[in-house]
Amino acid sequence: MFSRPFAPLFLTLLAAVCAISACTVGPDYAGAPQVAPDAARAANFVRVPAVGIVSTRAPNQWWLALNDPQLNTLIDAALAHNPDIHAAQARLRESRAQLQHEKANGMPKGTVDAAALRMRQPNLSALSSSGGGPLQLYTAGFDATWEIDLFGGTRRAVEAATAEADAVDADLADTQVSLAAEVAQAYVDLRDEQQRLTLAQRSAEIEQRMLTLTQQRRAHGTAADVDVERLTTQVENTRATLTPLDEQVEASLDQLAVLTGQAPGALDQELSALRPMPALPASVPVGDPASMLQQRPDIRAAERRLASSNAQIGEHKADFFPKVTLFGDIGYTAANPGHLLRQNNFSWIGAPYLQWNVLDFGRTLSSVHGAEASRDEADAKYAHTVLAALQDANTSLSRYGHQREHLATLQQVQASADRSATLMRQRYTAGTSSLIDLLDTQRTQFSAQQNVVAGQAELLKDFVSLQKSLGLGWRVQG
User: Fold this and answer.
1) b (16+ CB within 10 A) / e for 411-450
2) Model pTM score
3) What's the CATH superfamily of 29-107+152-323+375-469?
4) Is the pLDDT at 91 greater than 50, yes or no?
């Protein structure tokens, strides 16, 4: 195909190009910097509570430990149907498509073309009185170009796109972590509000019966008007708490419906029945700081974006150097379509094409400096993400431990209030205590019950926040 004098030169040039193409400019990625190494390598977190926490590795699907099938169903539905998940999945597909595009840029490009031309030219010869005849031409060919990646610009672009796709994958996992925690907290809020609403309704019923009884006693002259008015005020105050609680229940139902990708009201029938709040496990596994830093998707995303920014420096540095493109074309040309594929109508061309932008007035240098600044920014963001993760985990552990102690105190208060209310009711029935005393003890009892329910809900939400701070709740994507 090539002439004999040209063939050795072309093969020598091709070999030289292949040898040079092993060079890749720009800094090689050496991994993420160490951030708070002592804290990251510690055996335990700084704020780990004395009880209720074990250092064994935490399970990724932490909600299973709460033994609430309805909660499990809601989280599964949210992870499958929530629009934020669908958006994150679409971004992941986009990043992977961009990666394939960058890989394809390193491959040859080829096109096939064919044309049939018919043209009449004017006869410009003064010696001829007749016009020129029509010209017919038929062509078919194939041409290919291949830009040799001499200095690794394309390879750095692929490296950057690969790291960015990994970062977007971690973004999807981070969305799953946040969504699972949001569903669990909304579910706890719903069960908390339903229980407090039920307590308020029962209290209002008891107080209404006492009011009716007191009105009867006043009719017989054994109770005063002030007793009736005080009890009426108590009944109305309790009833006044029902409407806000009912509103909060409906808001939580709508929130859970939207989180699972459904319209408001879709879960009313399924979740309206009163059920107890999930039961916390006796001990919560949290692992160690090193495992937390490996698990958290936001840290993985920050590290991958640092790697991508580092690769982009080499991608821009490659523009300092010449680019070599191999060009080749083969084809047939004839005036008659029946003669198109004859050997004497065959033509070819092959040539290396060198292009070097030697006069760009600092454009390439400014691009390199911009890429280096982006790398430094990504480095700082990675450090911030790691420090924020350590703070988040330690704060969540501290809050969980203190809330356990607070709930234990609230439960002791409730037990005392229950005993006091029982004794005072007996004394009131026996006529040895006043209605005011009974109302005070009942008010204290109702408040203590409400506080315990709210404390249990707060502890559950602190448990959820702890799991989120550990980076748990994501699923591996195919």
Assistant:
1) eebbeebeebbeebbeebeeeebebeebbebbbbbbebbb
2) 0.85
3) Outer membrane efflux proteins (OEP) (1.20.1600.10)
4) yes
